[in-house]
Amino acid sequence: xxxxxxxxxxxxxxxxDYNPEQWPEEVWEDDVRLMKEAGVNSVTLGVFSxxxxxxxxxxxxxxxxxxxxxxxxxxxxxxxxxxxxxxPPPWMGARHPETLPxxxxxxxxxxxxxxxxxxxxxxxxxYAAALTEDLAARYAGHPALTMxxxxxxxxxxxxxxxTAAHFRRWLHERYRTLDALNEAxxxxxxxxxxxxxxxxxxxxxxxYMKNPAQVLDFKRFTSDALKECYTAERDIVARHTPxxxxxxxxxxxxxxxxxxxxxxxxDVVSVDIYPDPRDAWGGQYNAMIADMTRSQAAGPWMLxxxxxxxxxxxxxxxxxxxxxxxxWSLQAVARGADAVCYFQWRQxxxxxEKFHSGMLGHAGEHGRAFRETRRxxxxxxAIGPAVSGAGVSARVAVLHDWDAWWAGAQEGLxxxxxxxxxxxxxxxxxxxxxxxxxDFARPDADLGGYAVVVVPHLYLLDxxxxxxxxxxxxGGGRLVCGFFSGVADxxxxxxxxxxxxxxxxxxxxxxxxxxxxxxxxxxxxxxGFRGTLWSEELEAAEDAEVLATYRDGELAGxxxxxxxxxxxxxxxxxxxxxxxxLLAGVVRxxxxxxxxxxxxxxxxxxxxxxxxFLLHHRREMVTVAVPGTYEDLLTGRSVxxxxxxxxxxxxxxxxxxx
Length: 658
Known about the structure:
18 helices; Rossmann fold; 20% strand; nine-stranded parallel beta sheet; Immunoglobulin-like; seven-stranded mixed beta sheet
């Protein structure tokens, strides 16, 4: 099976989306000149080119793309060739309105933007397959082709009649009988029992709350329906080019795709990351998505898109301060990326994204954006041979699961303030700040290689996952679990006792009486820290060790954090310093050391292969102690025992000790 290694070939891929159809051809030669100057070695072509290639049904206009492919090859630039199926041309929506998605209320989502397709539409799928077939046949032997990029940011949802029929087929495959479906969905509640398959619809706009088990299955189905579109196109290009790797780009920590399931279908796992430059913890967010993507890839991964400066879709779109783009790009490499790419090469002058930055901005080749692009390209070329293909080793895993996320996002929960993604971010931040190398894993994965496993919040856990956690602790692992976890089974059915009995026994919870969610501005005092967002009325089992109690309010005197053996349960969200201290203590007990001890605040250390990356996320000058002798691959200078890092500074150190 082809892999990212086949496309990388001992270097870091550097480049991004190139949309030359927006520009007259005389600009193309200038683009290539500047690409070479900047060290660009890879461009993605064709992502939004369906209307250019197929201006009317069945027509094919490949001449312009032929010239581009030849142009790139003649200058030594590889092409990640996209199937342009993310944005059907207007003629499809006009001639085939049944391909357009419908919203929950039945209204049509019209063409005039992008991603206006129903994933269940056989008409859409037929046109997409035909175009992919011709594209793959034409460029299968082209020497510029290094990778296939299928579609773009799969994110459509649809509630139309075609989707309803597809949903019923999916449900029939899952449950086989209506009795099994009715049992799984709990349709005895509110007189929702189904007597015939045609009665079943997607969870459209309803009078009041929808059936949560039906909503959960529809989210599972939607991820699978989109994946069918991806695998159909993937199989076409793989048949023509079995040695060329295939990818599609995830959006970061997005709920619409079960990325664990999708990753298994990709040769290369890629993601688009857009931290907010105004976010004081943007570097931690960048690190978290990198860790998650590396874990999904089980090795090196591809940063398919990021912004060289500002984006255009936030209420206020600030550019990245000088040096921040370089810092976050090298941070991605430190955490396993073998490709650093952007949306897009040349900033657009028209269209909805004309204020979205480019590697070559509106200021042109004399602007700051291009100056920073050129510097980063040279640095990636310098470190590529030493880092490409190397791994990142972690002995701590954070568990993450889409079923749990989907189920925990339903209506009617104890608190609408419980944001799954934000809870994960809080727990990852605590590990990141303590310098702990971290993977992500699914709850049913083999966890035996990890000294510590962390569960920030998994409302839904199926029996296999629970048995896996119990076996992990019995096998010698240390487990730290956050609140409101193990509450529901795979059908979103509340488990007796409000938490699975196996988990209550594991953590030393005698009785879970009530969940006590907190208001946005509310906190609860505990021994040594304050808890936010959530609290729980628990009784500890006789052999449990209470590590912290609630000190005020209704829960005063009851356990907030308790432990039984190597399993710890945290029934609130501790403030950041307290959560960091708690997790750091468990990690130390497990014998896991930080990557580098004694770091100044704001400095991150990551080991990738034989290299030590130092990344400074602040503006003031700091000195970092690094006992030993090293070569800084970014500067070629020798480093002995310490190194100074300036504003957003980075060092990539290789030991020169004998």
